[in-house]
Amino acid sequence: IVNFDSAELIRHNVAQLAEQVPELVTIVVDNYSTAEARSAIRHLADTHGWTLVESDLNLGFGSGMNLGIDRAIELGSDAFVMLNPDATLSRMSLETVMSRLEEEPLSLLSPRIVRPDGSTWFDGGALDVYRGRTMSRPVNEGCSNEWPWLTGACLATTAEAWSVLGGFDDDYFLYWEDVDLSVRASRAGVTLEVLDDVFAVHDEGGTQDRGETDSAGARDFSADYYYYNIRNRLIFAAKVLDPSLRRRWYLATPRETYRILLRGVGKRAFLRPWRPLSYAIRGIWDGLRLGRTTRTSKP
Prior knowledge:
The protein is of the alpha/beta class. Helices cover about 45% and strands about 20% of the residues. The longest helix has 20 residues, at about 275-295. The protein starts with a strand and ends in a 6-residue tail after the last helix.
């Protein structure tokens, strides 16, 4: 679990599972936010006997997960479930996931993820490489331009598969690192599968940084959400796509940037257009700039 000032969410979502499965090794990586938040997660980890890995910086999701799995391997673990602070699994679901990993160790697995009201949040992801767009739905197998991906909100794998993949790419910081990992897994022969008979519950937005509340009471996503989604979409293209697909991807950037900016409060975001436009311009500029110098994703 990667923490960034989310101790209360982790207490609510993880503590009960850890108590139900005493043999479970729980590792929390704390990306530093404030002294108060660091103290809170230390107290929680001490109370439950969890392993706490402290970072003096905010490393983001992927790099934080890499630290956590490195520590898990040091402690002798050979299978892992990566879990968002705002997600939870039942003991039965966890046991089923572990059993499937034993049967097929060279795999990345995701449960079907539902919201607290039971509606589906994730049951598979498709990446449209012509439009440069991710969709939370199963891949259309007859469509050559769609690649599968699994969300990092709840993702399970083994030490064997992790050694093949080399972990998350550190260059993303937030967003798209799970898409990058999924594409590399497919290319390396690691199976991607959504377990339809296993469920995790995700309180969507529990860790999503939100911005201001508008006059209608809706909350806009934060600047980081917009910036890193726009930037990292372009970094992904530079790392993963061949030149012909990359050109398609870049040409679709204005449209896809607009779609990203519409998330949250929708067109109300443009009541103050300088704000979303500043996120978009910075994200596109930095994505293209970093894409020219970035290394190709491993393996």
